[in-house]
Prior knowledge:
By secondary structure, this protein is α+β, with helices and mostly antiparallel strands. It contains 40 helices and 27 strands.
Amino acid sequence: MPSYTVTVATGSQWFAGTDDYVYLSLQGTAGCSERHLLDKPFYNDFERGAIDSYDVTVEEDLGEIQLIIIEKRKYWYQDDWYLRYITVKMPTGDYLEFPCYSWITDEKEIVLRDGRAKLPRDDKTQILKQHRRKELETRQKMYRWKEWHPGFPLSIDANSHSDLPRDIQFDNEKGIDFILNYSKAMENLYINRFMHMFQSSWSDFADFEKIFVRISNTISEYVMQHWKEDFMFGYQFLNGCNPVLIRRCTEIPKKLPVTMDMVECSLERNLTLEEEVKQGNIFIVDYELLDGVDANKTDPCTIQYLAAPICLLYKNLENKIVPIAIQLGQKPGPDNPIFLPSDATYDWLLAKIWVRSSDFHIHQTVTHLLRTHLVSEVFSIAMFRQLPAVHPLFKLLVPHMRFTIAINTKAREQLICECGLFDKANATGGGGHVQMVQKAMKDLTYSSLCFPEEIKAKGMDSKEDIPYYYYRDDGIKVWEAIKSFVENVIHIYYESDEVVCEDVELQAFVKDIYVYGMRGVKSSGFPKMIRTREKLAEYLTVIIFTTSAQHAGVNFGQYDWCSWIPNAPPTMRCPPPTEKGTVTIEQIVESLPDRGRSCWHLGAVWALSQFQDSEPTMELLGMTTIFLLICVSCLLLVTTWRNRKQPPGPIALPLAGNMLQLNPKNLPESLKKLSEKYGPVFTIRLGPRKIVVLYGYDVVKEALIDQADDFSGRGKLPILERHFKGSGVATSNGETWKQLRRFALTTLRDFGMGKRSIEERIQEEAHFLVERIRNTHEEPFNPGIFLIHAVSNIICSIVFGDRFDYEDKKFLTLINLLDENRKYQNAIQTQLYNFFPTLMEFLPGPHQKMIKNNEEVDKFISEIIAQHQKTRDPTCPRDFIDAFLNKMDQEKGNGHSEFTVESLSSSTLDLFLAGTATTSTTLQYGLLILQKYPEIQEKVQKEIDGVIGRDRRPCMADRSQMPYTDAVIHEIQRFIDFIPLNVPHTVIKDTKFRNYFIPKDTMIFPLLTPILHDSKEFPNPEKFDPGHFLNANGTFKKSDFFMPFSAGKRICAGEGLARMELFIFLTSILQNFTLKPVVHHKDIDITPVVTVMTNKPRPYEVSFVPR
Ligand code: HEM
């Protein structure tokens, strides 16, 4: 029977893995295979970043494989999956690759074809033709055109980022929220104290430095120092962030009646103005488009103004471009004087400021928004609608447009919407920017997007005449590079111009752009059809250049050029001067943006100038720089690596280490202080032991995810070591850990053991819990112990096969022992044992009791294991222990097997230790918080009533319809920050991390507090606020910073179980009861009791009032 090897690659981004069932069928020219479940026994398939292989044997020869059908079916709850690709090794030994690079959501079936690029005419079989057609039909339903404003290029039909097809959403929505979140940017820039100061003027230019000094960079500082100079003013028309408006002046326009007298003192060649024009030394920038645009009226307390200046520039003998005349309005006349460099200093300065302000408006709305973002969105939508994934042009274009639609949708949601940033701080807000785009559409021609043509049309193409126009020089190089690459690709797939003409998909793509993007306007010059390979190369170059290089060129310099506010005022608060000789410094400052608007502007240009890891647009222009940077970084790395620099830290005493500098009662706080001094990676010594602390999201992510293998060791704590001897899931390392973890994960997943799912078990336990609470008849009590019993019964049910009655003596003894240990674990002596084991071994204290208790628990578990050995049926494992015993049988011949009675006993204990206090304390803490905020409790109950009702048991499928409850549970976990220091890791080999050398076996603390309480991600982190996990429209908002379960290879093995327990227990309680505190809710203290390992709620009592 023919056999195929199928290799499946899961994405490595967050949440890419799945626990769902995955089935595969192969469809060949001679037939279709059966549906195969892709599942390896005792293995966690399709983990994030995994590449898993499976053998698929089929009954008969399928012929040439054409398609793969993948079906995903729910296991616990809908678990989205990002499938990168599937490779199939044929019986002949050949390989075929089937790219997917998409999210598979819900219980979907997707059909993939092999990834070789094919034009429509290359598809010969009906199966493939049909697949191609269906793909486009589906895409056209998903990617629909919509008119955002009359006269605009059409955009995507989606009101919010979450409405977009999943595949084009940002992987990391939070990341991009941050990019567009200028209020967070302001906080970052330490300027938020000014942000509400509307109407409050700065006192002079130096006063602007208050918001500037802390945040300047080399360029912006240079701008601040030289912005008043004519040279700097002129230079920006060539190489600032809007280097597209300047053109050579071939004739002085009538509307700018400049005379020789006026400019004589600026001209250096002893020529008349006319002769200078003829020689090509005069340039012009005309802001006519702003004429008649309404200024922002959204704030009745601040009148704002726009102007439509014309600026004449001169190339002097040093080949520098300098301004020689400025008229602030389009209509000449006595109240519209022409300002000159020879005028009074402030007259001339204010005229230049007006030009800079007008330039800012055109830059933001026309150059940036319309001519890169909106146009690129047109290209992108047309591509998704008309080019199937196997089309070579889809493959060519998609990397440049993957996030275009998403960023535009986000911008429409947050930036250019009503009450967005434009309305807040820009004179073009309140609708002016819409009028500008509508007007600018007439100049949005195809030829104006052909970079060399456009430069030529403006008379700016001669390198000799205009030597310092770097935007042009770099742009031409990038244009040529793209074009030559595109030409080569085209020649591979299109043998002749005829092939271009008959490619119906390409022609439909071109037509879509013309009809929907350019609204069918003939004068736009956009082609309706492409007939030759040469034209096609140009067309594709326009698309790629606009979406990548052009955007990079006009976007990323915004902070450099526009952060010094007087150099790019986003609004002007006095009308343009109408006569000369009257301007004062006070008038200039009054005209410039107030403190509030300055801050909003600064936040915005900073935010817009940031780029994402996944933002492809910066790649082209920045290539050389990046390459150089990489070289320099490598050099630096090599040097430091040689010097073996270890992370810095406070000086340690020989025996005590840094114990005296750390407050054992609040280690997180002490570590925070050290991080402020030593940065995000630093070393401390606890006793003789050296520990590297990782402080903050970036470093923890880099260590636990990007360098996951290196940091996957478990830090050895002697107190646990003494008991476990390194043999349980949580404490072991190396091959033992790999095998035990994999086994535990699969078993937790595959077994709610036997017949019932874990979900059913939790529902049943929740029912018992509710009944037990009901019997308290509203008497106040501390619910802690009830919760411990309920949660540990779930583990009992998985591990021992059944739950215990709440009154069962054995059960109560076991729970008591574990609970006592939890307390002992936090005792100072226990911690000392961890660092001075030999000494503490001989001293009395709670650590000794803990050791004793562990022995008792061990005995209890050993007895149950012995019973299982007697009563089990290997063909029908009842629980974790039976499954483990079966595994031991399977590995009998293997002298090195990791599956032994000791590791069974340790793993069982691990599940109890790791799975009980964590979840039950989280619930206990959650119930306290909900008492403090009765309005939040009420909202959750409302959602429960609406989605579940009062009669049915809550189940996991409800969660997706309960975003508020989901957000509350996330916020509980974030707020309480249960394991602030995380569980210690080690590096398993000598490790290079950032610039440091960390020797093998060094203990690592990848702290969780700084992540869960990161003030940029969670504004006001010390406040309990479900809004941290909600979008403005009430939908659930994911966050990469949600890490209570840690991350990477050691991430909590019970995460799925814990989240299920939290949801079902909490909703079951609130479905049946309202929590009534014994004190006034405002007096409830929800700050944690900080212990060494965990944060606990303060003890409390509560009565549960039946609903
Ligand atoms: C709210 C509940 C829980 C929280 C906050 C939590 C948190 C954590 C954390 C922070 C770690 C350390 C990860 C690392 O080393 O990077 C961990 C490890 C672990 N957790 Fe949980 N946990 C919870 C519930 C559970 C449950 C219910 C189980 C079990 C059934 C469980 C089993 C484990 C195991 C076995 C490990 C060790 C993993 C390894 O070393 O490979 N946890 N947990």
